[in-house]
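Notebook entry, structure prediction.
Reason for the run: the old model in the group folder had no record of what sequence produced it. Starting over properly, with the input documented here first.
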Amino acid sequence: MLELIARTSKNPDVLLNLAQHHLQHHEWGRARMVLEQVDASDSSAYRDQVNELLQDIIQRLDGCYSQENQT
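New structure, fully documented this time:
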């Protein structure tokens, strides 16, 4: 439902909520793509939130990569 709303509204708040939803479900690639849409909309008011979520994705991916190399 949230994806349908995000596709039709293009509201940065809705897109950020969708990105957070994807992160909660370990869908990092989808979250990154949604964040790129927010970033491309040139909404400087959301830049800090976008950067924070992108850093979260990077940290999660680094953690997964580190765990794979330890085994």
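Summary: The chain has one domain: 2-70.
The old model has been moved to the deprecated folder.
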